[in-house]
Amino acid sequence: MKDFCNYSLLKHNTFGMDVRCARFIEFSTVEELRGIVLQTERFQKPLLFLGGGSNMLFVGDFSGTILHSGIKGIETISEGDDIRLRCGSGEVWDDVVEYAVSNGMYGAENLSAIPGDVGASAVQNIGAYGSEVKDLIVNVEAVDIQTGDICKFTSNDCHYGYRDSRFKHEWKNRYVITYVTYRFSKTFEPKLDYGNIRSFLLAKGIDEPTARDLRDSIISIRNAKLPDPAIMGNAGSFFVNPVVDEKKYSALHEEYHDMPHYLLCDGRVKIPAGWLIEQCGWKGRSLGNAGVYEKQSLVLVNHGGATGAEVVALCERICEDVWKKFGIEIYPEVNIIR
Ligand code: EPU
What we know:
Bound molecules: uridine-diphosphate-2(N-acetylglucosaminyl) butyric acid
CATH architecture of the largest domain: 2-Layer Sandwich
Distance between the termini: 27 Å
Helix content: 10-25%
Largest sheet: 5 strands, antiparallel
Order of helices and strands: EEHEEEEEHHEEEEEHHEEHEEHEEEHE
Structural class: alpha+beta
Number of strands: 20
């Protein structure tokens, strides 16, 4: 177990905010975690569970205790029609994808190179290029911070939706995730229909990609569109794509024929927030040291030395403009920690 006071969070948030927390504790086993949660009165409040810090914006120093999972391990627990991997919540998600692709386990290729840890994958239902991790999750193990009990939830129990789960609502601050078990297929069935994946592969002369080809292509497509946090601080998509009803969509479509959109099975329509933001003229613009990424308006970036407050101010201006122009409310996907 690691336990630090007045600890810098610079390496623990991909936005690159130079802030500190009063206390930082990293547990590496379930027993260590249970020991901590059964004695929470010993720690400065509030408590915050931090994964890879790839979906967090710290507005200032954090006056409480940060709990960070250092639970490692990628273990094959069963092999039948599918292969199941039980992974520690402190493993890097993309290491799991790499492990799967290298070992003939399929289904996660389109989720390559998403920053963050295994624990966060199950909170956030990470998704990209037509795949969502909920379709791979078999179960999630967690410790109840009120009782110290060890719990196991099925994917159904977690009520997964688009970038959503019970861990973001009624289970928030209740459970700390310790392990996630994912299911992989033994047969490779590439998903190539989202965006430009197929044409990207064809341009490389590949018409029957292997899982490795697909993973490499997804990594290249992401690298071309999304900023590398090691170079320019960011937390991926800053906003969630908004969903509107059919009436609202029809009214917008009358005016904006080229508006990209995705029909959902319940008849509602998802509109890319990046497109809305670009239409408002924000693509590539900055406010102080915070800016809108020049190649993808969904991503807010730290041009160097930005404060969390600057990013929040930028976010608020963008939300206001999108509301004024389109009558659509957009919300941050990133957790803003004040
Ligand atoms: N678009 C614009 N301008 C922009 C950005 C996008 O016009 O500045 C348009 C694109 O041309 C396209 C549409 O919006 O027609 C959708 O764009 P894209 O395929 O890039 O996807 P997205 O909806 O903007 C989502 C995820 C991303 C994920 C991509 C690819 C959310 C909130 N974001 O973005 O996730 O990589 O799809 O699957 O759902 C992340 O979570 O950090 C992330 C990057």
